[in-house]
Amino acid sequence: MSSKDRRELEALVREERTLTRRERLAAEASGEGRSTIYKVWLKICAIFRPVKLLGGVLLLLLSVLIWVSMLITGIDKAKNSFCKGRCGYILGHINIFQPINWVFTQSAKAFPVDYILMALLVLFFFSSSISGIATVGIRFLWVRIFQIRKGRTAPQALLVATVMLALIILAINYAIANMVAPQYSIFGTQTFCTAPTHNAGETPNCKGRPEYLVQCSEALDPEALKVCTPSIMTEFLNRIAITWPFFGALDFWAQFAFLGIFLVVFVTGLFRAPKLNVSELDEDAEEDEEEGLLASTGRRFGATWQDITGRTKSKSTYGTQEGNTGAGSSDV
């Protein structure tokens, strides 16, 4: 056989192994050789697949709503901030209707609906971040350094992913408090009475006069700030922005960079169909086979060594009847 024919034969053998491996993976995915419970679970997943699709569409609409809300807040801050870049674009009060902030301020009237919505929003941000890291992997620009794969993630990749998630949590805190729901995150549903008083130092009374009630904001007078109490997180972030204006401006404009990247990825995902990485599946299946062969080789080597030495693996039988019997026979 010539060298050319030998190379073609080896290529055909590799292709045959790949096709056999794919056939085995397809059979495993269809539940062949699995228990009845697993097959029932596959049928349930197939039945609820439309519900899963509907849930994905709803989450996509939620992402678009969050994007629009962040863009509105960013434009409002860039245009109407009373101190601009000197204090990190702190906004005195909301001038443009912001949907997410309105939902939270209205739901706060029915405790604890706002707490539940906020927990779901944070969970959505965090789970989306984890899903993105698992899909994209650990990269430097467009260069992939590590991959996040089930059962095959390198320890270095797990360490880097943990650090990235810690930094993402900080970014989520800033985004929610200053961009997603700024009014709710700072003062919630707190209001201040602006009714005129007859005497100096008299406490204003808005009982029966709701038109004098205004929501607490950063632009109120000092007397209002004695009544309105900001949240600890927003006060901490605002103090950083005022003390170090560079970091405040950097965080603010970084939100626009995030919005731009999201828009590009969103439009690209609408017109580009997802591709199945068949080569990665083949590599995973090949690694599974190699691990199985190594495990079986280790067992065969152990059995051969036991046949040569005439010994078996000793088991710890301390305090058992078998151990006592063995000790008695050795004495005899």
Automatic annotation (TrEMBL):
GO CC field: vacuolar membrane
Amino acid composition bias (Polar residues), ranges on this chain: 306-332
Region (Disordered): 305-332
Annotated transmembrane regions: 53-72, 115-142, 154-176, 252-271
Record's protein name: LMBR1 domain containing 1
Superkingdom, taxonomy of origin: Eukaryota
Protein's GO biological process: protein localization to vacuole
Keyword Zinc-finger: no
Keywords: Membrane, Transmembrane, Transmembrane helix
InterPro entries: LMBD1_LysCbl_Transport
